[in-house]
């Protein structure tokens, strides 16, 4: 579970950096990287939800 939380945090940091680069300077490549990171975050959050439910049982 801790590894999953670290994975989410890392993906979010990458997303935040790239999304800011796109918003501030219009960097199109950073926008693509931010979108990719958002998909990774989504997958990791679904994994976290499953792990959290299992841990609660």
Report what the structure shows.
This protein is mainly alpha-helical and 57 residues long. The chain has one domain. Helices cover 93% and strands 0% of the residues. The longest helix has 29 residues. The chain is elongated. It starts with a helix and ends with a helix. 7% of the residues are buried.
- Please report the number of helical segments: 2
Instruction: Specify the overall morphology.
Output: elongated
Give the DSSP E fraction (strand runs of 2 or more residues).
Answer: under 5%
Strand-pairing-aware structural class: mainly alpha
Entry keywords:
57 residues; mainly alpha; 2 helices; elongated
Concise account of the structure shown:
The protein is an all-alpha fold and 57 residues long. The chain has one domain. α1 packs antiparallel against α2.
